[in-house]
Amino acid sequence: MKLRAGDLAGFLRRSPPAAGLLIHGPDPVAVDLSRDEAVSALLGPGAEAEMRLQRIDAAALRGDPAALQDALHARGFFPGPRAVVVEGAGDGLADLVAAALGNVTPGEDAFLLVTATRLPARSRLRRLFEQARDAAALQLFDDPPGRAEVERILAGAGASAATREAVEMLATLARDIDAGSLRQLCAAVVLHGGGRVGAEDVAALAPQALEAGLDSAIAAAAEGRGALLARQMARLDAQGVAPTALCVAAGRHFRALLTAACDPGGPEAGLERLRPPVYGPRRAAMLAQIRRLGPAGIEAALRLVHATDLALRSGAEIPARALVGAALMRIARTKPPA
Predict the structure, then answer these.
(1) What are phi and psi for residue 80, nearest 5 degrees?
(2) Does the structural domain 2-139 have CATH classification 3.40.50.12370?
């Protein structure tokens, strides 16, 4: 079956339980956030510590196809529901996933949660979940969330009530910031308002959210989202953000990515070792960026940013804003490692 974002909670609570879920969309941060929301709803707190959640990278299944079946049918030491998350899947795994879904007993075996980038309507993996009786596909879109989605995010952050003006202000801000920044902002305004969100709570924190537009532009470049990058650059231009400030921020961001990507314990451990450490939606975003670019791609991006920064500081008469925009767009068009 097909799901909309607002249908996710009801689907996960259905009785009898479902066997699996596919989440796909163009924004890796939004996909990761929806994945975390689904895992939390399915398993409750402490699932990772109790080893009731197993994550498998799609690339690993190509070398060990039996690992998925083994994980779904495994029995743990701790009671409670279990889930297996396959990240970064594509049509090459459609047959393997179909066989796994066909052998799953909902409610007894682990729930199968698969994530992917945007899949076309003809995608075999997408059609598998859309046509299954015990599974569903949730397609996320690159559109800014509307009032209903903002209200859902606020409720998930613990809001007991929100005024119409506050929701409208947040929906307007959502056009200028990414999904992760919006969720962080919603969590902050809920905390600021003590659970009851008013326009004054949003107004108090909105300047911080607008500053996040600079980070959103850099994240769009790192995630390969050229259209979003172009929109963010236009907004930064209208706000009067200096090209040198954008270049400095980009250098800082890609240095952090490279440090985490090259950590001996893996990028997750590397992000925790950064000072300050990275958690929450920003951590999910940076992990997605590291997976997309790889260490070599991040290093190339950092060299390009450094060369652009030197050009800006050379004193020569150059179109600074266009130069920085071209550098970030070139990073956005970098192809993921094979």
Answers:
(1) 115, 165
(2) no
| Tokens of residue 185, six digits | 């902002």
Beta carbons of 125 and 94 less than 8 angstroms apart = yes
The number of beta carbons lying within 10 Å of the beta carbon of residue 67 is 16
**Domain extent listing, the chain:** 2-139, 147-212, 242-332
The gap between the terminal CA atoms of the chain, to the nearest Å, is 32
Cα angle 11, 12, 15 (rounded to 5 degrees) comes to: 80
CA distance 155 to 144: 18
CA distance 166 to 67: 47
**Tokens standing for residue 214:** 């600079």
What's the pLDDT tens digit per position in 115-165?
A: 998 899 999 999 999 999 889 999 988 777 788 889 988 988 899 999 988
Helix pair angle (243-261, 320-332), 10° resolution: 30
d(CA 304, CA 327): 7
CA–CA separation, 25 and 226 (whole Å): 15
- CA–CA distance, 13 with 122 (Å, rounded to integer): 29
Entry pTM? 0.60
| DSSP state, residue 157 | T
Closest CA to 254 of 217, 216, 286: 286
Nearest Cα to Cα of residue 325 among 252, 239, 221: 221
